[in-house]
Amino acid sequence: MPENAPTNANGLEWAARRGMGALAEKMGMEFTEFSVERCVATMPVEGNTQPVGLLHGGAYVVLGESLGSMAANLHAGPGRLAVGVDINATHTRSATSGIVTGVCTPVHLGNTITVHEIVVTDDQGRRCSTIRITNHIRRID
């Protein structure tokens, strides 16, 4: 881990100051770990379902993008902004109750591009969705 990499506590403080955004809050997401190397958040299934009672596929993607974009911005550091340029998701199981947990880990942490993988599991630890997001990092002028 780089010398200046934030610890989990510092990362959670940074995320709390920055805020998760209105959509993440509306969907009930809660960050539980937050560092450059690993970010974790939970989200309830209830309130985020399709008409047939399954967690909406878009909800998985919102969880993944929230984790991946926030992680990329933590990596980017002051005076820089990470913006999503590509995201994809493969849903392999449906959650119908409880909470899902997203675990975000970096695939590539560059100066101008980051790639993160987010694995979303259900209460039983079964993989429900795999999301990959690419963020472009640019200077804030």
Task: Tell me about this structure.
The protein has 141 residues and is of the alpha+beta class. The protein is globular, with a radius of gyration of 15 Å. It has helices at residues 8-18, 22-26, 57-76; strands at 30-34, 39-44, 80-91, 99-109, 113-121, 127-139. A hairpin with a 4-residue loop joins strand 1 (30-34) and strand 2 (39-44). Mean pLDDT is 92; it is low at 1-5. The protein has a 6-stranded antiparallel sheet.
Brief rundown of the structure:
This protein has 141 residues and is α+β, with helices and mostly antiparallel strands. It contains 3 helices and 6 strands, in the order H-H-E-E-H-E-E-E-E.
Question: Which properties best describe this structure?
Answer:
single chain, 141 residues, alpha+beta, 6-stranded antiparallel beta sheet, 3 helices, globular, disordered N terminus
* Uncertain runs: 1-5
- By DSSP (H or I, 4+ residues per run), the number of helices equals 3
Q: What's the arrangement of strands in the largest beta sheet?
A: 1-2-4-5-6-3
**Run of helices and strands:** HHEEHEEEE
- Structural class by secondary-structure content: alpha+beta
Radius of gyration: 15 Å
Strand residue percentage:
35-45%
Main sheet record: 6 strands, antiparallel
What is the general shape? globular
Q: In total, how many beta strands?
A: 6
What average pLDDT do the residues reach? 92
Proportion of helical residues: 25-40%
Cα end-to-end separation: 29 Å
